[in-house]
């Protein structure tokens, strides 16, 4: 595969691959340069379509997987979003672009060092609609609920009850489910239950709680 050397090349590759489908997700990826969120020692690999380590056993996710998750999530301007497992801050920035200035993104990261890393990465970007907190997000975050969308970038054996409780009616959740074998789940809250769609074949770090 040809080496990708710029954010524009990465976006064009993801469009060609079919990972990016909507104009909104394409615009968000164009606005968020992945190189801002990777360690300095890995800047030359910033635009490649694979995960990169950011320390403490964590990674910045593969861009194609991020794009797929955002397409499944279906974010619109003005929405209220919860992100769990902010890691590098890259997905939080993409979500901030998608909701726009009238929306709201609350991003949670349980590891203090990673939360600090993400805040540093986001420092040069002006997103007043984004709040990044060093908190346990394994049961969501009640103060900013209810949410239109919840995106979780870590795997759990099942969907935590807190996420269901904090979603609006017809709100959507995207997260990986499983232990040894994982699948991405898209779950829409309909009344007292979730309507789910399953996309197998993914690997994520486990969802951590205190």
What does this protein structure show overall?
The protein is of the alpha/beta class. It has a single domain (7-202), classed as Vaccinia Virus protein VP39 (Rossmann fold, 3-Layer(aba) Sandwich). Helix content is 28%, strand content 27%. The strands form 2 sheets. A 7-stranded mixed sheet has the order 5-4-3-6-7-8-9. A two-stranded antiparallel sheet has the order 1-2. The mean pLDDT is 94.
Count of runs of 4 or more consecutive helical residues: 6
Helix content range of the residues, please?
Answer: 25-40%
Number of strands: 9
Strand order of the largest sheet: 5-4-3-6-7-8-9
- Report the structural category: alpha/beta
Quick synopsis:
By secondary structure, the protein is an alpha/beta fold.
How would you summarize the topology of this molecule?
Layout: H1 7-17, H2 23-31, E1 52-55, E2 58-60, H3 63-73, E3 80-84, H4 90-99, E4 104-108, H5 112-122, E5 130-133, E6 147-152, H6 161-166, E7 167-177, E8 182-190, E9 193-202
Parallel strand pairs: 3-4, 3-6, 4-5, 6-7
Antiparallel strand pairs: 1-2, 7-8, 8-9
């Amino acid at each position: 595969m040809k080496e990708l050397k710029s954010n524009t090349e990465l976006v064009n590759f993801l469009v060609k691959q079919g990972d990016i489908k909507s104009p909104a997700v394409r615009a968000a990826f164009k606005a968020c340069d992945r190189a801002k969120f990777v360690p300095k020692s890995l800047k030359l690999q910033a635009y490649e379509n694979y995960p990169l380590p950011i320390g403490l056993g964590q990674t910045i996710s593969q861009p194609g997987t991020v794009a797929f998750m955002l397409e499944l999530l279906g974010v619109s301007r003005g929405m209220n979003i919860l992100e769990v497992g902010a890691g590098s801050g890259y997905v939080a920035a993409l979500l901030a672009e998608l909701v726009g200035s009238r929306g709201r993104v609350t991003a949670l990261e349980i590891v203090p060092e990673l939360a600090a890393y993400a805040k540093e990465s986001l420092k040069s970007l002006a997103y007043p609609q984004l709040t990044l907190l060093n908190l346990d997000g394994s049961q969501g975050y009640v103060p900013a609920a209810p949410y239109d969308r919840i995106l979780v970038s870590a795997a759990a054996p099942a969907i935590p009850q807190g996420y269901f409780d904090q979603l609006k009616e017809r709100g959507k959740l995207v997260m990986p489910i499983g232990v040894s074998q994982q699948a991405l789940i898209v779950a829409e809250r309909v009344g007292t239950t979730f309507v789910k769609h399953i996309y197998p074949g993914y690997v994520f770090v486990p969802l951590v709680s205190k």
